[in-house]
Amino acid sequence: MTRSEVERAANGLRVQGHSLYLEPRGRPPLGFLAHARGARPVLPERAVATAATIRLLEAAQPRALRRTAALPAAYGQTFALASLKLTAHPAGHVLGSAQLRCEAEDLDLVYAGDLGGAGKRASRTAEPREQLRCRTLAVRALYGHPRYVFPPRDQALEKAAQFVEKTLREGKTPVLVAVALGAAQDLVEHLGGRRTLRLHPTARRACDVYAAQGIALKGYVSLEDDGEVVLVPPTARIERLRIGERRICAFSGRALDGIPGVDEAIPLSDHAGFDELMAYALESGAKRVLAIDGHAEDLASALRGRGIEALAVREHHQLRLPGF
Predict the structure, then answer these.
(1) How far is Cα 121 from Cα 146, in angstroms, rounded to an integer?
(2) Using an 8 Å Cβ cutoff, are 182 and 270 in contact?
(3) What DSSP character marks residue 223?
(4) At residue 2, does pLDDT exceed 50?
(5) Is 244 exposed, middle or buried (0-12, 13-18, 19+ CB in 10 A)?
(6) Contact 105, 260 (CB under 8 A)
(7) Which CATH class is domain 153-266?
(8) Where are the domains of the chain?
(9) Which is nearest to 113 in space by CA: 313, 319, 316?
(10) CA distance 290 to 304
(11) Which of 29, 92, 258, 324 shows the smallest number of beta carbons within 10 Å?
(12) How far from 199 is each of 172, 183, 187, 202, 244, CA to CA, in Å?
């Protein structure tokens, strides 16, 4: 990579020539947290994040957050950290998710991180994604393979409603398996006016933060309370819930590959699909694109086919990517 872009370092990816890490591992002096989903138990000494991300971290990782100095970043407001000028913009992934524009001498970099969908594929409960223009774009490529093209959000959510009603007519309990931050809130927003959803604690805490931030969510209760529908994250042990006869529906972009052990799978993802990643990169006007992790090689290859200099970037000691 050329100077003043992104380099691989001990704690992950760092803006080259600067002290800012991008969604780091461990505890570097300074890091940018693009969103609260999957936050690590150890945070940077100083963490740049939006106010909504900080609130979500307070609910999910209070001990980790107490050990960091949070630096709130408001969308669209540029601020300086040492020789860098930084501006956060909505990423459309989950509530509070952000892209980060990094500017310095000879540097015009946008770290898009995990982009969400836009238009008919936009999240119902996250801030609308903003299209940025830049000279260099770094973007995570979780669904950077051409097979990952997702349906409109409303279509996927209505299929969820149909699954719930069909299961209830059969006298069984609908169990929805979705990440606790992101898809869970969209499901609550869509289904909560029709049925009462019993939420796993991680999803319920996130919903409480969303509601406090002005997102209209209703019709959800704790897992121990009464309700027709159960919603749990992929890590939950469903067999321990003692809910009797049930049908299980999983919500993930991986539904396009098939998800074993469930009755139905619906491709409801909080990440942009391949076609959206391509469109975003092309509309950014970037001369250089760094595709990070996931299907980085596939995305970079497709962009090179469109005449853009594109590289696939892997972090050191990369962990296995989650399926949801």
Answers:
(1) 17
(2) yes
(3) T
(4) no
(5) exposed
(6) no
(7) alpha beta
(8) 6-148+271-313, 153-266
(9) 313
(10) 11
(11) 258
(12) 17, 13, 11, 8, 17
Q: What is the pLDDT of residues 69-97, one digit of tens each?
A: 999 999 999 999 989 999 999 999 999 99
CA 299 to chain centroid: 18
pTM attached to this predicted model: 0.94
Burial class (CB in 10 A: 0-12, 13-18, 19+), 171: exposed
- Tokens representing 225 are 């309370």
Give the span between the Cα atoms of 312 and 298, in whole angstroms.
8
Each residue of 10-49: pLDDT tens digit? 899 999 999 999 999 999 999 999 999 988 889 999 999 9
The CATH code that applies to domain 6-148+271-313 is 3.60.15.10
Q: Residue 320 pLDDT more than 80? A: no
3-state helix, strand, coil in the chain (%, to 5): 25, 25, 50
Q: How many CB atoms lie within 10 A of CB 64?
A: 17
Q: What is the pLDDT of residue 316?
A: 52
Q: How far apart are CA 90 and CA 111, in angstroms?
A: 12
Which amino acid, residue 140? R
Give the mean pLDDT of the chain: 94
Give CA–CA dist 294/112, Å, rounded.
14
* Token pair recorded at residue 76: 């669209």
| Residues 112 and 139: beta-carbon distance below 8 Å | yes
User: Which token pair is 110?
Assistant: 């946008």
Two tokens, residue 90: 């909505």
Report residue 84 as tokens.
């860098």
Name residue, tokens 């898809």.
Answer: 183
The SS3 call for residue 91 is coil
Residue 69: both structure tokens together: 């100095």
Say what the pLDDT of residue 295 is: 98
Angle between helices 201-212 and 51-60 (to 10 degrees): 150
Give the pair of three-digit tokens for residue 170.
């059969």
* pLDDT tops 90 at residue 121: yes
The Cβ-side half-sphere exposure at 321, using a 13 Å CA radius, reads 17
